[in-house]
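Each lists chain and fold; for instance:
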Amino acid sequence: MLDAVTDETFARDVLTHDRPVLVEFWADWCGPCRMVTPVLEQIAAERAGELTIRSINADENPATARDHTVLSLPTMILFRDGRPVRTFVGAKPKARLLADLDEALAQRPFSCS
């Protein structure tokens, strides 16, 4: 099971985390969410040292979903250094999701120099 965050804990558990965090926005009524969650649980176990994966129920935490313009479920947003760096929408097979994550994680963070 993925660790859940809420509107109240999102900043602490995601935005100030010391490594990249993938957040799954989901809802109880969302069939594709039920398909992607087990895949994310596998990835969380396999990548535990380099990536943190959290989940947030968009129906129960509408402020965070609104703040990140979540319009469709499931939506997964990858955060690095407190900023969203990539958004993934819809259920994807594990291989495709891993490829997308690896591509996003390989990109250099923005620099203000």
